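Task: encode each sequence below as structure tokens.

Item 1
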Amino acid sequence: MKNSKLLLTSALVGTVAMGAIANAETKISGSATYTYSSISGATAAASKQGAGKEVQIDISNSSTLENGVGFSAGFSLEQDGTESSLDPNEGNFMKFTSGDTSVMWNMDKAANLSASAAPRASTSIHTMMQGVGTFSFDYSPGGQFQQSSWNVEVAQKIGGGTAYLVYVPRTKDAGGKNDNVDPEGDGTQLDLIYKGNFGVDGLNVLLGYTKTDAKDATLQDNKATVIGASYNFGNIAAGFNRISQDQGDSTDDSSMEYGITYAVNDKTTVGVLYAKTDNNGTADEEITAVQVGYNLGALTVEAYGVQVENLNGSSSAVDQEKFGLRLGTKF
């Protein structure tokens, strides 16, 4: 009798699994970005140039459950530079949607504060600054903890946009093997984010608050707020993004990013970015960038030049420059 029950249970599980596969729409897509950049460092030894890459495969499915709830799930495999294997900790998620509300269990998929309301013609300041040195501009307060930890996101469409509540039960929890538990982990994190236009065409608003529990009793909680907005005036878009942080080591800092872009035509956009950061250094760090983006359909071409003064808030730091070219495609 026990064996009969086991066989019956196995058959039912198999039937349910086959039904889910049959009713789900599976998609495989990906992207590849190849770069070449040069850095003019503080010394001849610090100056360098070379190639870079980032390739990614995305696998997902979507369906409607028997109870009428929308369901989607997926994961990504990413390889950067000379990494010897694909990183499986990218874009893992299971998402349930009903009307204008969705709930998602995920890692590296939820809304986060690495976004900016300042318009750009190419990539972010953070990406352009890679390899230059230790800089104080923080593009993503709390974002790295959230993106590298399993979390739950509740999203609600409202007021011409979407409001997000993201809760991380244990920061640094990358997940254990199968039913095992990852031994690493700190306190919790909470993000409250709004992205939208409040019903005004051409307007783009970003509002955010994040709080990460202190690692131990000697530190205070890390808190940050983000306020950003931009407006599209036809071919011209202009805006700002302000980040204020109350950090765990009892220091405060703030960054202000401004951006303006001009669409030369439907394929070419040029832009200028400027960021200023006060991180309790001897001088405010200032980053200025010029960008050009060109869309060839299957291929995007981006070029940029970025300069930093008072790197990491040091008035004695030598100004540094970086120039980059990015070729991107999706499939």
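Item 2
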Amino acid sequence: MLDSFHETSFSHDGVTHPVLRAGEGPGVVIIHEIPGITPPVAAFAERVVEAGFHVALPELFGERGRPVSGGYAGAQLARACISREFHVLASRASSPITHWLRGLCRQVHADQGGPGVGALGMCLTGNFALALMVDPVVMAPVLSQPSLPFPLGRERRSAVHLAPEDLTQVQARARAGQPVLGLRFTHDPMCPPERFETLRRELGDGFEGIEIDSSPGNPHDIPRSAHSVLTNDLVDEAGHPTRAALDRTLEFLREQLVAT
């Protein structure tokens, strides 16, 4: 797992985290989900490298390579909830860790060149890609099952974990032609439909939302509990909607980052 990656570290504003890096080509910052860099997250990162990109995979919490389990995920979720770097209930503010991630995006762009970098967040980190879009070097933001703020109450179900002034900048970039890609399962309680409705309303044609049917009796027998589109719940078979979502994600990165 991650045999092609080498470990570095990145410091910004007094914060330091390990960062695993591999590959050649335009940079893509992949921000792992709860509970950490699990085997499915590592497999996705390797897939992006194989597609022709340089991947920077910061390690924000968890034990590298440890498989997902209920207890492990719960413990890391609790850790995130009390961390100063994550504000899991904030409707109209970004988590402080996004400032560090913006710095990492700028560093990756300086190292790799090209028109810009991609930023892909998932689950707890999903909406971070939207916050990173405030920086003009981020040209391919992907939000996979964005779960912040935790959807407790009507306001949080539709919120996108972004300060109003940052949303204004994101809207301006979307109007100027910068697209945003979002992925979710239709019955995922952590990423409710109201959240994508907000993104469509605020970003208009700049938002491309892929919503995969996970209703009871759906044609692909996707469980109602499905959550992680690109990792834990990916079915890597031609014709499966999660594989189509993966293919579209890689295509989106190429469209935005590969100079023609």
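Check on item 2: The radius of gyration is 17 Å. The chain is about 35% helix and 20% strand.
End of task.
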